[in-house]
Amino acid sequence: MAAAAATEDKLLRALADACDSGNTAEVSRLLSAGAPVNGKLPGTYGSTALFRASEHGHTDIVRMLLDGGASVDATNDYGSTALFRASEHGHTDIVRMLLDRGASVDATNDYGSTALLLASEHGHTDIVRMLLDRGASVDATNDFRSTALLLASEHGHTDIVRMLLDRGAKVDAAGRYAFTALHRAAEYGHTDIVRMLLDRGAKVDAAGRDGSTALLCASDHGHADIVRMLLDSGADADATDECGRPALVRASESGHADIVRMLLDRGANVDAADPG
């Protein structure tokens, strides 16, 4: 029995290497030699061959494994499936194949993430479209309360933001610390996304748990064009965070003189002071 276990372990280690490198002939040989198609590969946090081949984009191997009986929704030690890895790494043909073979489109891993959240975060527009077409929940949240819209807005994926909004994503859905997509886009300087969110009705003065509005975030990080856009959209120039600091103070503390001038020109209270 020990010898059999050692043989299986050796086969699985070789299978892991072949799936990682895309050696289709070697995968075929190992399966014929008795490597279990759904075996957990050593040193891979519980991944199966299908998981590894999907992660590395080896379409022919994925097909071979599925034809050989690989479980399409097998999970690793963190609850992720092959669909997660293919979606995260942008392997469109593999995502399509896995879905065609019955992969669960809204499966969640141990962190509450879904394939749609990963594809949205990493900017894979075609995969986002495909997952939505197959019924993925547009407003699904992970354990950090992030939606696909929040992640795409934070990472600057304009086409995906547009697509998610067109598919009914909630524009003011609040994630961790009650920040919305507008907060994230304003903080990271994604001007086109800020414009789009405002055009779709995002609340310009929505406040996070610490009281920050999008204007405070943009002022703090020096995004003058976004500050101008938010003010033009009616943002309160004197809104304060939980420490009582308005945008004028935060821009001044961060050394953004152009934003300080703009805020003053727009009527921000010149006597605003940091209570601390």
UniProtKB/TrEMBL annotation:
Record Pfam families: Ank_2, Ank_4
PROSITE patterns (UniProt xref): ANK_REP_REGION, ANK_REPEAT
Extent of the signal sequence: none
SMART domains reported for this sequence: ANK (SM00248)
Protein name in UniProt: Uncharacterized protein
UniProt superkingdom: Eukaryota
Annotated InterPro entries: Ankyrin_rpt (IPR002110), Ankyrin_rpt-contain_sf (IPR036770)
Alphabetical UniProt keywords: ANK repeat, Repeat
ANK repeats: 45-77, 78-110, 111-143, 144-176, 177-209, 210-242, 243-275
